[in-house]
Amino acid sequence: MGTSISELISEKIDAMSTSERKAAQTLIANYPLIGLRTVAEFSAQAGVSSPTILRFVSRLGFQGYPEFQQALQQELAAQIQSPLNRATIIQSSKGSAAYPLMEAAIENIRETFHHLSTQQLDDATEALSRTRTHVYLLGGRFTDPIAIYMAAHLKIIRSGVTHLTGQESNWRDQLIDMGRKDVLVIFDIRRYQDSLIRFAEKAQARGVEIVLITDQWLSPIARFARHVIAGRTAVPSPWDSSTTLFLMAETLIAGVTHKLQNSSAERIRDMEQLRDG
Amino acid sequence: MGTSISELISEKIDAMSTSERKAAQTLIANYPLIGLRTVAEFSAQAGVSSPTILRFVSRLGFQGYPEFQQALQQELAAQIQSPLNRATIIQSSKGSAAYPLMEAAIENIRETFHHLSTQQLDDATEALSRTRTHVYLLGGRFTDPIAIYMAAHLKIIRSGVTHLTGQESNWRDQLIDMGRKDVLVIFDIRRYQDSLIRFAEKAQARGVEIVLITDQWLSPIARFARHVIAGRTAVPSPWDSSTTLFLMAETLIAGVTHKLQNSSAERIRDMEQLRDG
DNA sequence: TACAAAATGTAATACAAAGTACAAATTGCC
DNA sequence: GGCAATTTGTACTTTGTATTACATTTTGTA
Fold first, then answer.
1. Final residue before a domain boundary, out of A71, A95, A119
2. CA distance B60 to B77
3. Predicted confidence (pLDDT) at residue A83 exceeds the cutoff of 50
4. How many domains is chain B built from?
5. Which of B24, B95, B221, B229 has the fewest Cβ atoms surrounding its Cβ within 10 A?
6. Both B257 and B127 in a single domain?
7. Tell me, what DSSP letter sits at residue A45?
8. Residues A106 and A91 occupy one common structural domain
9. B140 and B252 share a domain?
10. Residue A1 confidence (pLDDT) above 60
11. For A88-135, how does the pLDDT look when each residue is reduced to its tens digit (9 = 90+)?
12. Closest residue to C9 by CA to C1' distance?
């Protein structure tokens, strides 16, 4: 009796065909409201035909679509009555070790933010918000994608953002343009890359303000960095997890966006016009 | 716009007749679920006739009963479907609102994994572990860095991994080499990119098995995908958060690594020798 | 490659629900 | 208490939806 429909889906999804799985996916992704709409709307959203939706519903053990909808509504009713209920359900899933990597990642995130002072974040955010100066971004073998991600966003909300691509020799050429009060964001986790360390040292020598985003063991670049943000990366896997660093990048992006709200809103408008026009 | 239906009722209830008031009270008492049922059920519950319900609904300013139901659903959707809302409720009860973006991200991760069956993940992992076939990766404007990240790891543990770089025209040229049983991993979140959709369609036409990693609203590419993995992306920021998708990528990487343990261990040894030597 | 089996969609059908006209009932007023 | 105005419900029509039969496509296998 207590089995919720989303559990029911997880149980039976193995026995489902591709299209039926799409129906299941769509329902889960828009849970549960899409199931309360008509078969036609549900099927359109899932990109399958209506009979597929009906087969999906009957596979879940319902006699017909109305019966299925009634079950969904009852579930909803129970949820709405106690909004805290939901929180408890989520908490209780904490014990389930179905996804150890996920649990570890969440723990890492919590731990990282717990040890991080808002001051540190604010300082780094401020550095990235100085629109007079240039911001350069760079990452290592596995962290460069995060640098790219961050650059893609920063480029939209402010000018003077450059991601340093290619080989070390290419970066070095860029050094000539980097000077006092410019900002360099470096991502570096173990094994720390010599090329990054050398570059950071040279940049610092030119007076560049370095924001380092690294793991809990701290890259040697910390010596040269003005701002050091360290995130936990250890997970039960042969690889380290960079999810924490990724979220840190997003946090910085959000911070800069907020700080430059007025100017960036205008900038984004202009940009969309350029794109559409 | 912002006026909720319950507010609407209190505004107009004075102008209502006795029976219409019964309808109003019934709706308030069972808010909002009774309004999502049929007119007949609503009228029975209120102890009035169906035309009275319809008159009540039209007095609230709706053109018809379906329009009224749609409004109710939108209200509900805002309440329950937004993880933000829940995150705010949960965190406010805990008192630690220092990092709302972090709280929301964690909530998104939990919610996503909770709705995800291990089978789905396993299937996708299996697809990425078939070393006989080629794996192509591709992402959108903001998600391509995740595709790059994933490719960087996969390249180490197995052969035949290609990240599709550059413009659409470049990808298209790669299509010629893609065929039945090859795998294409696509990251696509809103606003969904036409170029990606077009490419996915062409790839599917060639018999390529598509693994789609998308947001909760599902990219249209879901139509063409064999595996659909949907993660929540909404956070209290002007930007969507891709942290969940990033962790999903790491989870898949870990899964493939585990599955190819023996062969990949050897491969990594060889690779290190090449690097050192 | 050809065949059988399974899956999926198209299109017609059956059904249920919303909407409407009008008659009955109720209420308010003189 | 009788008349007009309003409210309410009944019975019917219209509309839209779930359902189903069947053709088509896809998939797996020899």
1. A95
2. 20
3. no
4. 2
5. B95
6. yes
7. H
8. no
9. yes
10. no
11. 333 333 334 578 899 999 999 998 888 787 878 888 999 999 999 999
12. A49
Contact yes or no for A183/A134 (Cβ under 8 A) = yes
For chain A, what's the residue count?
277
Contacts B37 to A, Cβ<8 Å: 73
pLDDT at B90: 34
Q: Does A47 lie in the same domain as A170?
A: no
Q: Clarify whether residues B146 and B196 are in a common domain.
A: yes
- B198 within a domain of the structure (yes/no): yes
Count CB-CB contacts under 10 A for residue A118. Answer: 11
Q: Could you tell me the two tokens for A261?
A: 């709200």
Taking the C1' atom of D17, which residue's CA lies nearest? A38
**If you measure CA to CA, which chain B residue comes closest to A244?**
B243
Does residue B44 have a pLDDT over 50? yes
State residue A93's pLDDT score.
Answer: 37
A170-229 residues touching B, CB cutoff 8 A: none
State the residue range of the domain holding B143.
Answer: 105-276
Contacts of B102 in chain A (CB under 8 A): 109-110, 113, 247, 251
Residue A98's closest chain B neighbor by CA? B118
For nucleotide C8, the protein residue with its alpha carbon nearest to C1' is A52
Q: Chain B contact for A17, CB < 8 A?
A: no
Q: Which residues of A spanning 29-88 put their CB closer than 7 angstroms to strand D? A: 38-40, 50-51, 54, 57, 64-66
Provide the angle, in degrees to the nearest 10, between the axes of the packed helices B243-259 and B144-157: 10
Q: Say which residue the tokens 């009979």 belong to.
A: A51
> Are A114 and A222 part of one and the same domain?
yes
Asked, for residue B216, whether it belongs to a domain, the answer is yes
Tokens of B237: 């920021």
- Residue-by-residue DSSP string for B19-46: HHHHHHHHHHHTTTGGGGS-HHHHHHHH
Domain with residue B200: its CATH number is 3.40.50.10490
Q: Which residues contact A69 (CB under 8 A, 6 or more apart)?
A: A35, A36
Nucleotide nearest to B66 (CA to C1'): C18
State the nucleotide closest to A67 in CA–C1' terms.
D18
Check CB contact of B75 with chain A, cutoff 8 Å: no
Same domain for A40 and A112, yes or no, is no
Mean pLDDT of B171-177: 89
Tell me if B86 is assigned to some domain: no
